[in-house]
Amino acid sequence: MAKADKTVRHPSGRVLAAINDGLQEIAAHFELSGFSPVKGGPTGEVVAEEPEEQDSSDGTDSDDYEDYEGSSKPDYFDREDIEIAIDEFISQLIKANVMRKSGAGKAPSFSDVFEKFFGEDHEITTKAKSFEDYIKGYFGAISPEDMRAAYDEFLDIQETVREALERTHA
Amino acid sequence: MLRNRERLTQIAMERLAASGHRAQQCFSEASEIVIFGSMSVGLERLASDIDLLCIGRRDFTLKTHSLDLIALKVETTTSAGWLESELASHIAEYGTWLKGSPEWCSEVQIGQNAISEKRRRIAAFMKALPNSWSGLDEVFRVKYSVKLRRETQRLLLLEKGVSVPPTRVLDDCWSGISRSPCEVHDRLSRLASCPSNNFIQDLFGRIDAHFEMTREHRQSA
After folding, report:
1. What's the pLDDT tens digit per position in A98-107?
2. ipTM of the complex
3. Which pTM was predicted?
4. Contact present, B69 and B15 (Cβ < 8 Å)
């Protein structure tokens, strides 16, 4: 995955474990939004699950789907929710002393995390920047296509982190 | 005014030059070029970006640290979606035209969709943040308290049919615009999904502290 370049780095097991834990927050957000990886899919292909009528036995809150009324798929996703999930991810890394705020008290961005630990030329950093572009949205709304593309990038990022973490355990 | 336009044109050209071919193409093809936001009214801070609307042949957006470019097709500016938007009303009121004339501005009127969208956005934050608040670093709590204050200020103005001024006016001069010091507080309370919890108390404490600070600053100035 990594290009042969001096600016590609190899993060420690502690850092990888913290990133891996933090990414779970963002994964949970996508799952709550109706996305899940297709089991056995060729390249982590994803589908937006159809919102279904919920019964009380499955423990989900049917109000979660109120935005989908009259349509089998959402017209757009709220930028606000994913923004908070990413900020929680970065907050976890700050708390774990994995990332620091700048001298001016500015928090790092999602892609800053990967640029710092994997290097700016690593594919994971490119994917993190691409993920940020997809979720920029337009006046607070993210199209289902962009959300799906963002989730594709996210799954690749998560997979890369997991693989790197496994290598540190081997 | 002419001097201000020359200065703004020069800043826009410099920042566009550093923003790539497509941005420059939008600028050179545009039949109307408008600067809006804080720089248009001379209230920019040292690190402010320049907000630029180019009306021409293409839809395009670009945001860098120094430039926020929105390019629209000419036909878009005659649509109800544009003419009733928060942005169109802001530009019509506070924009500085570097090229072309503001003919469409006479048709601008804040629409119900703009108000509903603002309410939706605030409500979305107010719904999601209580669960995340304790896990967010202080830098993000500050970010969201500022964001929610500003968005609520904008909502209050939109609901009155008033164009939203540049952000610095919301930050520093709200007492001159608002009817009551509690207006933001009260409006946010009505958009909160659970009105009494630690998140709400902390959020309101931060918002009240901001208004208190600006009031003291104005009194001492």
Report:
1. 999 887 888 9
2. 0.81
3. 0.81
4. no
